[in-house]
Amino acid sequence: MSELLSKLEKLPDISRPRWNQNEFQGRMYHFFTTANWLNLFVSNSELEKARQTVIDYKQGKFDPKLTVDELWKAKSLYDSAFHPDTGEKMFILGRMSAQVPCNMLITGGMLTFYQKFHHVVFFHWINQSFNAIVNYTNRSGTHKSDDQTLILSYCAATTGALSCALSFNYLLKKWKNAPPILARFVPFAAIAFANAINIPMMRNKEFTKGIPVEDKNGHTLGFSTEAPKYAIPQVVLSRVGMGTPNMILGPILFEYLTRAKWYTPRMAAPLQILICGFMLSFSTPICCALFPQKSSINVDKLELSLQEQINKLPNPPKKVYYNKGL
Q1: Which of 123, 120, 147 lies closest to 135 in space, CA to CA?
Q2: Whose CA, among 4, 140, 242, 306, lies 20 to 30 Å from 326?
Q3: Distance (Å, rounded) from C-alpha 26 to C-alpha 41?
Q4: What is the pTM of this model?
Q5: 205 burial class (0-12, 13-18, 19+ CB within 10 angstroms)?
């Protein structure tokens, strides 16, 4: 049974994740809680109760009967539903907990209906529209994305994904002896290409204005335009990684299952959605955890002006930290 907070000599620090973020396992545990799709079914009253628990605790107030586990459960619910900067409740489809159920439906549709022109257009449009909702809901940080940037990145990603998917489908039709399984991998190529367009466009201000870099104690030392060159590729790799198992292994598994005696064509969409849901349940938190949220960079890799600024400090650090984003 979890200990009572009132009996602890040192209270938990909920300003940081519960698990060690310097270790992959700790980061994975953290994202398994924040991306838990069961949080979508938590009532508004429970969410408000969790919010009040977190706010009161930060002010040094808590129920004497509150346990450590109950505190961390409240914190995980708060993190899953409320914006970290404004504290406002986020639109339900834009929450991290909505990633698995929404993506399993969209990806399942893309993998099932991937041959006809209107199917390709519809599902890639839906996918990029969902991404736009997530980006808009979670827009935060020092340099917030304005509406124009969101619209441009949405249009560019949608156009890129459709161009990629339709071009590959056309080439495969021209290739007379092309293995049928290759056509099932086209949605993955299109989504990977769209992510490579969308994320850098969404965060373009970081390349011109920089992102804050901090010392190990969290003190901001300046803004770096070099750090985004490391941060953004990490985010792109994580996003592409999330879709790799269900969009690469999924079609292979589906192709195998279609040979079973019990399989009928009517089962195609439900089966693809179930496969995607199972794989996304693991790939989403695992790929979010690939790189530390607070990543590090050596000072000598920063731009010269910032290096000089940092080196003038008493006991200047050799390494600084930045928030890579998600």
Answers
A1: 147
A2: 306
A3: 25
A4: 0.81
A5: middle
pLDDT over 70 at 238, yes or no: yes
Predicted confidence (pLDDT) at residue 49 exceeds the cutoff of 90: yes
- pLDDT value for 1: 46
Query: Which residue in 67, 208, 85 sits closest to 149, CA to CA?
Result: 208
- Copy the structure tokens of residue 218: 């969290």
**Helix, strand, coil fractions of the chain, as percent rounded to 5:** 65, 5, 30
What are 297's strand-pairing partners?
A: 320
φ, ψ (nearest 5 deg) of residue 8: -90, 140
Report the interhelical angle of 99-112 vs 268-288 (nearest 10°): 130
Give helix then strand counts, H and E, for the chain: 13, 4
Share of the chain above pLDDT 70, in %: 97
In the sheet where 211-214 sits, what is the strand order? 220-224, 211-214, 319-323, 294-298
- Neighbour count for residue 41 (Cβ, 10 Å): 8
Q: Is the pLDDT of residue 140 over 60?
A: no
Q: What is the pLDDT of residues 19-44, one digit of tens each?
A: 888 889 999 998 888 888 899 999 99
